[in-house]
Every structure is written in C-alpha cells, then in structure tokens.
Amino acid sequence: MPDKHLSTQFDTDLNGVSSRVMELGGLVESQIHQAIYSLSNFSPEAAAQVIDIEQRVNAMEIEIDRDLASIIARRQPTARDLRLLLAISKTTANLERVGDEASKIARMVKSIIESGSARQLPSTDLRVAADLAAGLLRKALDAFARLDTSTAVAILKEDDLIDREFDGFVRKLITYMMEDPRTISPSLDLLFLAKAIERIGDHAKNIAEFIIYVVKGTDVRHASIDDVESALR
C-alpha cells in the first residue's frame, strides 16, 4: 500500500499495519458471507459463527489502533504519511462497525428463525442487497490496498444502488404489513436486517472517501459526486 520512504523501518511499520488492516478486512468479509448464508438458509449455526467472530474483530481493532499510536509517536509522520495513518485508523473503525452490522444480521436471523414466520416474507430481495454490499466492501478493500482513486469514485456511485434496493424493499414491506397485519412483527425484523445491510454499503463508501483523502489531501465526505470528481482532476 504505502510508497517507499527514506526510512526503511518506517516502510516496515507501514507495511505491517497495512497487512493487519487487510487481515481484519478478510475476517469481516467472512462474517458478512456467513451472515448472508445464515439469512439465505435460515441457519442458526451460521449465525452463531458470525457472532463468535465478533470478539476477534474487536480485538484486532484495538491492536491496530495501538500499533498506529506507536508509529505516530516514534516516527512523527507528516503530510501524506500522516494522512495515510489517519485513514488506516478510520478504515479500521469502519471495518469493526461492518462486523457489528454482520453480527446484528446474525442475531436478527436467529430471532426470525425462532419466530417461525420468516419464509412468508421477501427475504430473497435482502440477499441481493447483501451480495451488493459484500461486493462493495471487497472493492473498497482492494482499492485501499492500491490507493486507487478511480475505483473509489466508482464505489461512491455504486453505494447509491444499495440505497435504492433498501428504499424499494421498505416499500414492499409496507405493502405486506398493510395487506396482512400479522406480518408486521417479522416485517420489522426484516426491516432491521435491511438497514444493517445498507450500513455495510455506507462503511464501504466511507473507506472509498478515505482513499481520496490520502491521495489528494481533500476531505470529500458529504460532497456530491460531481465535486468529488472535480477534486480528482
């Protein structure tokens, strides 16, 4: 990920912490895939595995933050190096939150299974959105490893697809609840699932914004796509 520096030890430190972030990303991705599997197959075993991984994700976030603090204290980085370390810290926090969302999905799947009514509702639509969100996170991690701003912009645009999936799913659930009040409780469960999936896409978008911040030194959070593209010209 990082460019070469005059300090070989600094390069070693950066490469080490960058590798840890990619390792954390892989762990979180496994959580998401297990969560999607638990949703697709209403599998309490898969849901339990997602929840079990959560402690490892939390521990890795703390370890990476400790490593970053040590690098900043010892190396006193400036300019782009400092931006990179800050972006790594924020990316780590977003990955931990993605893990939280995956755990929420797993816990909700267990609740839906116990209720016995999930198969009557449009959970297939959720799996489509979940696959989109998982794919977006994979792209964000790949782009972060390469500091690829072109892919970062594409991710910002693709997040809109997940938002549209979420809006459409909410409208469908409202229709189900209006037609049959008995579906209100399980529909609300699915609504919480849909929101967790949407949040995964939001965290992938955040990571994409950090890439642009590292490369260009411009904070593009809350900026329009046109403004982001202008910043990259």
CATH class category name: Mainly Alpha
**What's the rounded overall pLDDT mean?**
88
Proportion in helices: over 70%
CATH architecture: Up-down Bundle
Largest sheet: none
Helix tally equals 7
Output the structural class.
mainly alpha
Catalogue the unreliable spans.
none
Based on CA inertia axes, which overall geometry fits? globular
Strand content: under 5%
Structure description:
The protein is mostly helical and 233 residues long. It is 85% helix and 0% strand. The protein is built from seven helices and no strands. Helix 1 runs parallel beside helix 3, helix 2 packs antiparallel against helix 3 and helix 3 runs antiparallel to helix 6. The longest helix has 37 residues. The mean pLDDT is 88.
In short:
This protein has 233 residues and is mostly helical.
Question: Mind sketching the topology for me?
Answer:
Layout: H1 8-41, H2 44-75, H3 79-115, H4 123-146, H5 149-179, H6 184-216, H7 225-232
Helix pairs in contact: 1-2, 1-3, 1-4, 2-3, 3-6, 4-5, 4-6, 5-6, 5-7
Keywords:
233 residues; mainly alpha; Methane Monooxygenase Hydroxylase, Chain G, domain 1; 7 helices; 85% helix
